[in-house]
Specification:
Length: 413
Amino acid sequence: MATIRKALVIGAGIGGLTTAAGLLRQGIEAEVFEARPTPGRLLTGGGFMLWHNAFLSLRRLGLGIDEAVAADSVHMRFHEFRSDSGRRLARWHLDGPTEKSGAPACALRRSSLHKVLTEAVGDHRIRLGRRFTGYTQDVDGVTAQFDDGSTARGEVLIGADGLRSTVRAEMRRGFEPPPRYAGYTAWQAITRLPGESLVPTGTFFNLWGKGGLRFLYCRLNKTEVYWDAITSDRAAAGIDTLRKTRGAALAAAYRGWADPVGRIISSTDEGAILPVSIHDRPPSGGWSEGRVVLIGDAAHPMTLNLSQGAGQAIESGVVLADMLGRAQPDAVPGTLRAFESARRGRAGDMVTTSWRIGTLGLAHSAPLCRLRDLMMYTFFDTVARGQSYALMLDGRLERAPLRTAGALDHGAG
Ligand SMILES: Cc1cc2nc3c(=O)[nH]c(=O)nc-3n(C[C@H](O)[C@H](O)[C@H](O)COP(=O)(O)OP(=O)(O)OC[C@H]3O[C@@H](n4cnc5c(N)ncnc54)[C@H](O)[C@@H]3O)c2cc1C
């Protein structure tokens, strides 16, 4: 059977690198084009949660990628929900699902995941400083164009270029509604803060406060803590970064919150605090056109509330690689449509659920927030936990390893 020989992947983020690793595993050459100019800039980013489903998908790639990522991570044992006064609202024990699914839930540096995936693909296949600008296609293949005037040709082009995807815009011939703004900002940082009693290893803390404020944090290793302050636009109106540093402005916004929130913020270097406004796209079809397809945030961007954006990019990348590994070159357009059918429902459910959770965080007044706390106290250990796990580990999650026929040499992997 003739197989696809060459794929072009646009974007060396988590989705693009996962797809490339999966294609290589099956003997399809993959060339990755990344707009960022240096490896250092590629390996930036803060902390991160990867849930069981992400590890199960990484395991399908073989090569011990899931083990390498887990080895550089903190294994989570609890996901704890609290109010701003420090009252525990719910506590999910993660050992049970870890044992049942056979895969951990972990906190890690984003750069650790990138490093393992980059090694699996091989530096020599990642073209840095090559910004994709457009494509043309015919019955045999696709030609991608880049801003330096160069071109590249393959039998399939995979747009893994993130939330503001150029591949997506090109596919829609210049008209595309902008991403949907969720009405809140995540101020994320990693700080040096040793002390088990302050932030115990193995618990992901998820704090819900009044006035449109939330705060997430967890330990990444013995010395570092990752945190995200999530501020609604209404709350952000009072965050004065004109007259104060970011740290001081956030410290003022979170004054009165139970320990260790103040300590975490005050320990953080000003330059480490990065605000990101949160967007998604309502689930929609149209991920492929002929031999061009979107994956990850380019196809199904979601808010951060389920910590599943990267998890879904990984799932999509592995499923796409699997399907292309079985496809004949002239069946690429049909295979890409089948990929969308296989993935759209699950990724769309994640987008929708994550959006709904985010709206709970917009509650502002004290009575409304007390009502929300009561709801979380009553339902989060049971109903919400059950629904969250049913979504994360449902029957649509593929688990079979990828075929390995004709695997190419891998970088350092
Ligand atoms: C604050 C925050 C916290 C989050 N926390 C989590 C979490 O805990 N767990 C989780 O699973 N997810 C989380 N996410 C979501 C996750 O970060 C994304 O879903 C994930 O990074 C998507 O990966 P991707 O490869 O699709 O896109 P990206 O990571 O955006 O990668 C796209 C790549 O394409 C490149 N690129 C863009 N345009 C071009 C072009 N024209 N030509 C060439 N290259 C191009 C970019 O430089 C980039 O390297 C979080 C998101 C935010 C904002």
